[in-house]
Amino acid sequence: MGEIDVPNDVHIRSMVGPTRPPRGEQVQVTVDGAPQVAWVGEPLVDVINRAQIELAQVCYHPQLGPIQTCDTCAVEINGVVGRACGTKVAAGMVVRTQTTAARAAQRDAYDRIVANHDLYCTVCDNNNGNCTVHNTLGVLGIDHQTRPFQPKGYEKDMSNPFYRYDPDQCILCGRCVEACQNVQVNETLTIGWEMEQPRVLWDGGKPIGESSCVSCGHCITVCPCNALQEKSMLGEAGLFTGLPLPVWNAAIDVVKGVEASAGLKPIMNVSEIESAARDRYIKKTKTVCTYCGVGCSFDVWTDERHILKVEPGLGHANGISTCVKGKFGWDYVNSGDRLTTPLIREGDRFREASWDEALDLVARRLSEIRAKDGPDALAFIASSKATNEEAFLVQKFARQVIGTNNVDNCSRYCQSPATAGLIRTVGIGGDSGTIRDIEQASMVITIGSNAAESHPVLATRVKRAQKLGRTKLVVFDIREHELARRSDLFLRPRPGTDFVWLSAVSRFIVEQGLHDRAFVEARVNGLDEYLESISGYTLAYAEQETGIPAATLEAFARDLAAQEGVCILWAMGVTQQCGGSDTSAAISNLLLLTGNYGRTGTGAYPLRGHNNVQGASDMGAMPDQVSGYQRVGDPLTVQRHEREWGVTLRPERGLDNTQMIDAAIEGRLKALWLTGEEMSLTDANANHLERGYEALEFFVVQDLYFTNTARYADVVLPASPSLEKEGTFTSTERRIQRLYQVMEPLRGTRPDWQIYSAVARRLGFDWSYAHPAEIMDEIARLTPFYAGVNYARLEGYETLCWPVAEDGTDTPLLYRDRFHFPDGKAVLYPATYKPRQNAPDAEFDLHLNSGRMLEHFHEGNMTFRVHGIAEKAPDTFVELSPELAAERAVQSGQWVRLISPHGAVRLRALVTGRVSGNEVYVPMNARRAEDAVNRLTGSGGDSITNTPAYKDTSVRMEVLNDVGENPLPATNHRWGHPTPQRGVEVERKWARPDYVFPGGLLPMHGDSLNARTDALGADD
C-alpha cells in the first residue's frame, strides 16, 4: 500500500484541537500592501491572523473553522467585500482589511450582534479577558450602538447542573452548534433559524436538562460571550458579580444609562480596570486531566480553593475539547470527607495520629517484617492516578529500600495483555501513533472498546472524521454502544472469540494475495511459521466459533486490505479475557500483514483507561521491569541502577497484583503498601481479595478518602490529588505532560512523593528530593526512553512522546523506519486461541459483561462526590435485553439479584437494546461496596500476564418483587433525541427575509453547504 497523501504532515501533527484539512500548495497573496505566504484552500482569515493584522472575527475560531454567521471579518478581496473566514486562499489575491467599505461592513455587522446582546460588561461574570464580543468592541473602536438591544422573550435555561443558557445574551454566532455537531459530534445543538426570534435549541427545543446533552462543555468553551456559562462562575468571578439580583439589575441600568450619554468607551475603560483587578485573585493554572488516559490538558481557574471553571484550548490531545468529568468533575477535591489526618488501627477502630507517628510506625513495621521474613514478604502497588515521579518512587522504594521486585500497578487489570501482545510483535507495548494518526486513518476499527464513554475526547475525533467523510468506522463488540450505533459496520462476535475472526481474516488476506507483500518481505519476520499456526482458521470456522457469517468477514477483509490507512483501537473487551495477550498479538499481526504500521493514519492503539496507567508502567512499577521496560536481569540495566542507587537489582520476577493476594492468603506475603487504588472493588473476585487483606500482618493504604479498601488497613495515609501537586502524566499516546499545582495540599495531606521520601529517609536512605523535577532528572538518567525528558522541555503546554532522545527529539509516530527489535524487523507471532472457561451453562445461564459509564470514572470514588454527575447517574444497575426482560417478566426499575459462583449483588434492572439475548451488562461504578460488579467475577485470567478475565463470567438472575424508580433518571442524556445536521447551516440564516449583508453590499462568499463541508475537509 502507498503512503497516505497528507501534505504538511508535520503541521497537522503539531496542531492542537481537531484535525483540519491538509493545506494545498504554497502561494503568495497581498494583504494591506504586504506580501504574505499562504496555502491554497486555507481560510483567508488564517493568513491575516498569521500576519498579526488586527481584524474583527466573532464567530471564527481556529479549531472550528469558518462558520460565516457574524460577518465582522468583512474585508475587500480583489475589490469585492467578502468574509475573510469563508474565503479560501487562491494565488495572487489582493486583500485590504481597512477600506471604507470593509470598515463599514465590519461595524454594521457588530452593531447587529450587540442588538442581540445586552452589553453590561462591568458587572458581567464573563468579563475576564476572553470575551470575544467585549474584545471586538475595542478592536472596532465603536462608541455607540445604533440598534438598541431587544430582549428575545425567552427565559434563561438553568436545567443543567453545570451550566446555564441565557438567550438574551446569545448573539447566534453558532460556535456552540458547530462544536456540538462537528467537534464533539453529540449533535444536540441547532439554531432555529426559521423561528420568528431565532435561538439555540437543545434536541429541537427541549430544556437542556432533559436533552441529549452530555455536559461535555464544548459549547461553553467556545461561546464568545456570556450566553453559555458555568454555574460555578455565576456570582463568583468578578468584583461586582456577587451583588444581590435587584442591586445587580440596577447596576446594569446605571451602566446602560451612562452609555447613552457618554458612549461606550468610558464604560469599557471601567470594565477593563475591573477585569484587570480580577487577575489579582483569580488564578489560572495549567493541569492535566485526572480521569481517563486521553491526556486532556487545560487551565483551571480558581479563587483560593473554589474552582471557577476549566478552560481548555491549548492541549495537544484535546484542544477545546473536554468530557463531563474533565470539564465539571472536580468537586471531589473539596469533598467534606477528604482524609486530613493519618489513621492508625487499634483493634476494630481507627484513631487519628500525627504524621510523625504514622510514618514512624510504617518504617518500623516494614523494617521488622523485612528482618524477620525477608524482603519478598513485602509488596507495593503504585497508583495509576499518581504522577510518573510518584510511580517511579514506589518501584524505587521496593527495589532500593526493601530489596524486592514485588511491585505492580493497575495496568495488571486492563492493559498488560495489550502491552504483551505488542512487545511480541513490534517491540514496544504502547500506542504506535497519536490521536492525529487515528483522525487521518481511512478506516478505524474498534474491538471491545466503548471509546465514546471510556475515552470520550478521543472518540470525538473518530466521530468527526467519520461524519465528515474521511473515515470508515467498523466496530466489533458484544454491546451496542454509541460508536456501534454510528458505525458503518457493526459486528457482534460471541464473547471471547475475537482471536478467531482476527486470525481467519488474516489467513484469508494472505491466501487471496491481498496482503502488503512488499512491506512484509522488507520489514516482517516469521510469515511461514505464523501462517502454519493459523492454518485451521478458515472463514467457515470463524463463522462457527464467532457467529459472524463468513461472507460478512470476507467482505470486511477485502475492504480492510484495500484501505490506505487502518488504525485498530481496543480495550478491556479484548484484554480482560483468558486470551487477552494472544488476541492483542493477533490484532498486531493483522496490521503487519496489511502494512499498517509506521505511516500517518495507521497503527495499533490499546486505549489506556486511567490518566497515568501508561506512565505507571513506563516508570517500572512492574514485577519484572524497571523504568522504560528494562528487564531487571539485563546486565546494562543492573549496572546503570547500581551506579545510581548503590544496590544490585535482583533478577527474579516479583509478585504481580493478583499473585500478591494469593501469597497473602498462603502466608508468604506479610505486608502490602497500596497507593491510590480502590483495589477491593476493582480487582476480580472481591470476596477472595478481602480474605487476602485480612491475612496480611501489616497493610498501608494511601488515598484521598477512607475507602472500602482502607477498612482493612493498619495505617491510612491522607494523600493529595493532582490539583494539589506538581509532576507529569503520560497519556495513551505516550505523551508526557506537566501538571502544575493548582492549590495548596489540603491541610493535613501530603503528595505521594513526599510520603515515600519521608519513609525512605527513616529507613536510612538519602531521599532528599526538593521538587518532582529532580525525580524526573533521575528517571532520565536511568531510562533510555526518557533520556531527553526534563521539566524545561515540558514547560507550559509543551509535550514529548517517548522515546525521547537526549537532544529532546521525541517520537509521536513509531516504526517509521524500523521496529523495536535488534534487526529492525517486526515479528508475526504465532499466538494461540484460548476460549473462555466460564461460558453460560444450565445453572449460570447469563453472560456478564462490565465496563465504564461516561459520567463516572471506574468505581466512582471521585465522581459520586460530584453532585451534578451523581444527579445524572445516581447508582449502578444491570442492563437486560428486551427479549430477556420479556422472558423473565422484568421491567426497568425492578430489583434483581445476580449470582455467580463467587458472590451475589442486588441491582435495579434497566431494559435496553444496548444488550442482546442473554448478555447482561453492569457498570463498574457503584455507590455501595456490596453492589460492586467484582463481587461476581472470578480469579481466572490471561495466561501470560495474569490479568483477570473479568469478561469471562457467567451468572444467574433471581427476579425480586421490589420495583423502584428507573435507575437512569429522566434527566440522563441517554433518554434524549439528538438532532444531527451538517453544522450551523448558515445558509438558512442567509435565506431569512430580514438578512442583509452588512452595509447592504453583495458579499463574496462560499454560500453553500458544500463550501462549508469543503472547509472542514468533507467529501461532497
TrEMBL record:
This protein's encoding gene: fdhF
Keywords, sorted A to Z: 2Fe-2S, 4Fe-4S, Iron, Iron-sulfur, Metal-binding, Oxidoreductase
Name of this protein: Formate dehydrogenase subunit alpha
Domain 4Fe-4S His(Cys)3-ligated-type: start-end pairs: 101-141
SUPFAM superfamilies to which the protein is assigned, alphabetical: 2Fe-2S ferredoxin-like, 4Fe-4S ferredoxins, ADC-like, Formate dehydrogenase/DMSO reductase, domains 1-3
4Fe-4S ferredoxin-type domain mapped to chain residues: 161-188, 204-233
Domain 4Fe-4S Mo/W bis-MGD-type: 282-337
Organism expressing this protein natively: Deinococcus depolymerans
Signal peptide per UniProt: none
NCBIfam families, per the entry: Fdh-alpha
Source organism superkingdom: Bacteria
